[in-house]
Request: fold
Amino acid sequence: MTKIVKMEGYEIHHPKTTLKNKVGTSGGISLKEMEQRMAKKMAGLTEEFLAGIPAVIKTIETSLTKLEKGDGGEPEQTLLFRQGHDLKGMGGSFGYPIMGTIGEGICELTSRDFKASSLSLPLIRIHLDLLTYVAAKRIKDDADPNAAPILAALANARLK
Amino acid sequence: MANYYNFRNLNIIFVDDNKNMHLLMKSILLAMNIVSSRGCYDAKSCFKEMLEDPPDIVITDLSLNPENGLDLIRRIRASEQGVDRYMPILVLSGQTKMENVIEARDAGATEFLSKPVSVGSLHDRLVWMVENPRAFIKASEYIGPDRRRAMRGYEGMERRQ
Reply:
């Protein structure tokens, strides 16, 4: 039974069931062991992630080309934002933070702050080219010797 | 012998519209010994799953398709279709601007974890949620975890007026 304390204009509820009822402190495994388990699976998961990147590139290419030709509008902008958003979230999670940075850049360039008619399409095109290059060369992060020019290009492809 | 948190009995629903995130989350949860987890691609299927077998935690992205993750949180807090409004909700999102965090908090999220996600980050946040249960506030304009104690990572960000 939830304990309810009535205050002036609001109530404070204290639910009886908390996560502590379900999570014990015995019989568990260490974080180190969890990480070791995860590391064993990560290579396979990363391959799955990378296998999906050509489809992402194709989707971005299709939407961007439409916008460049003047045939696109808000749906294409939304699609570009979503692809950027997914890349931003997943790049780092799958060990490719540089893809996450590219995704973040696409998000910034396609956010709802801009109308579809006033997007900086050449800058989005640069992001797409960089994504294609990074995926082909499998550049993970700034430790890769090929990463420096990519990061420099990304820095220059931001809105001033 | 050291004692470690045992998450095995947790039942989790995660909501994300991306297939790769499902693969990743399932693997992370399994690595943490959480065997009862279900992935949903949208709010509608999340509600269906919640009604069939109520979870202990919902982990949701903010950018869902077609429904917004914030709407999902509000619907849970409103106890729509009789779901447990007190359910802990962890937002896992790549939308990490302060305004996104505040929106999630004001919708009734319990905690916020930014992507990229790893076993370590999820483990730490779950431990935090276990050790720091939050009371709920029910007011005319808000129902959800007490916002006077900010979400982890944003302690002291704002206090309830």
User: Anything to note?
Assistant: Residues 3-156 of chain A form a domain with the Four Helix Bundle (Hemerythrin (Met), subunit A) fold (CATH 1.20.120). The interface with chain B takes residues 2, 9-15, 17-20, 22-31, 34-35, 37-38, 41, 45, 48-49, 52, 82, 85-86, 88-94, 97, 100, 103 of chain A (CB under 8 Å). The two ends of chain A are 56 Å apart (CA to CA).
